[in-house]
Amino acid sequence: MSDTDAPAPVVIDQFVKLTYTETLPPNLARYADALIDGRILGQRCPTCGRVYPAGKGFCPMDVTKMGEADEVVLPDTGVVTGFTIITPIRYYGQTRTEAFVYASVLLDGASATIGGQDISGIPADQVRDGLRVEAVWKPPAERDTDDISARGWGTVSGCISSFTPTGEPDAPRASYEEHVF
Questions:
Q1: pTM for this one?
Q2: Contacts of 140 by beta carbon, 8 Å cutoff, 6+ apart
Q3: Could you say which DSSP state residue 176 is in?
């Protein structure tokens, strides 16, 4: 049969969902369990002292292996180091209609930010770098860690719905400026 005799391809317009199940490494499994319990777990590098929320089991700066003995509980307060105001446009699946903010938050005592955090309790145009924020935890029965995977830094979105201003004065820029990008 030649190419000209081949039947026309059949095209089916259908949404497809693929679900992957993977086993978390021990450090991320402990991180996920801590989030369910209302705690944010990080890892402190024994070589350089940097603290990483949802540590990967090694320090990315000096490649030192980290384990359970290096884990620390981080506070659920921090500072906004950068943000984006998103003005929703209508598209399939869009549920938000008002402007909202995604921010990078440097938790107190951490050496790395957690990105993509929803900021609530303040108008979008009043969010700023240096804003002191605290986590708004979901009720324990609503917490899940399904979005945590070994392919990315651990997310908090299944357990923390947003961060909201603490009412404290803004942090001095020098305390977080190395985390601004």
A1: 0.83
A2: 36, 38
A3: T
